[in-house]
Write a structure and sequence with these properties.
The complex is a heterodimer.
Chain A (H helix, E strand, L loop, with lengths): L3 E3 L4 E4 L4 E7 L6 E7 L6 E7 L2 E5 L2 E6 L4 E6 L8 E8 L7 E2 L3 E6 L1
Parallel strand pairs in A: 2-11
Antiparallel strand pairs in A: 1-3, 3-8, 4-5, 4-9, 6-7, 7-8, 9-10, 9-11
Chain B lengths: L4 E3 L2 E4 L5 E6 L6 E7 L6 E7 L2 E4 L8 E4 L6 E5 L8 E8 L13 E2 L3 E5 L1
Parallel strand pairs in B: 2-11
Antiparallel strand pairs in B: 1-3, 3-8, 4-5, 4-9, 5-6, 7-8, 9-10, 9-11
Classes of the chains: A mainly beta, B mainly beta.
Chain lengths: 111, 119
């Protein structure tokens, strides 16, 4: 069993839709939860991160962590064609510790 | 501020040939990472440097892979000899020092990667 599980998609939605991306994990030591966005032929870029459980909002993006269920989510409101990318969840047990990535979910937002 | 620079962007070689990738991290970033990303997968850490020291190379296949960061700035990752299964994107990332933020996360900034194809 992988430490981090993520549905690879692809996920195709119409412009303006609310997108929900999810990951599950098995390692209870994970404390930092991150979402990276990766455009085609580019390196990943950090989109959001949260520490421990709870929600964090940044513009159209909301990250949620439920440590009791070992489940994290990223919500994108009012999705735009420019949001079309692969979204990678990532986790670590502490700052500057090894980061474990999910496989990524490919998202396509149709105009 | 310039981002992480990697070269070459693309490389095609025949199996059993050597290949080298170069990375220049963001200025002032003392932590440097090399990752391998297979198609449809997330990045997997190969090696992490703190300045010149390799502090985590447990996932580096040492029989054919080597890396160096001699002056604590840019770094080279080498494969010799390459195998068909080495075809992947090799990503370099860097993080700022622990004495300036974001301190707790060790936020990693990635370069564009080198896409290696071994035929």
């Amino acid at each position: 069993q992988k430490e981090v599980e993520q549905d690879p998609g692809p996920l195709s939605v119409p412009e303006g839709a609310i997108v929900s991306l999810n990951c599950t994990y098995s390692n209870s030591a994970f404390q930092y939860f991150m979402w990276y966005r990766q455009y085609s032929r580019k390196g990943p870029e950090l989109l959001m991160y949260t520490y421990s459980s709870g929600n964090k909002e940044d513009g159209r993006f909301t990250a949620q962590v439920d440590k009791s269920s070992k489940y994290i989510s990223l919500f994108i409101r009012d999705s735009q064609p420019s949001d079309s990318a692969t979204y990678l969840c990532a986790m670590s047990s502490g700052g500057y510790q090894k980061v474990t990535f999910g496989t990524g979910t490919k998202l396509q937002v149709i105009p | 501020e310039a981002g992480v620079v990697q070269s070459p962007r693309y490389k095609i070689i025949e199996k059993k040939q050597p290949v080298a990738f170069w990375c220049n991290p963001i200025s002032g970033h003392n932590t440097l990472y090399w990752y391998r990303q297979n198609l449809g997968q997330g990045p997997e850490l190969l090696i992490r440097y703190e300045n010149e020291e390799a502090v985590d190379d447990s996932q580096l296949p040492k029989d054919r892979f080597s890396a160096e960061r001699l002056k604590g700035v840019d770094s080279t990752l080498k494969i010799q000899p390459a195998e068909l299964g080495d075809s992947a994107v090799y990503l370099c990332a860097s993080s700022p020092p622990r004495d300036r933020g974001p301190r707790l996360l060790g936020e990693q900034y990635f370069g564009p990667g080198t896409r290696l194809t071994v035929t």
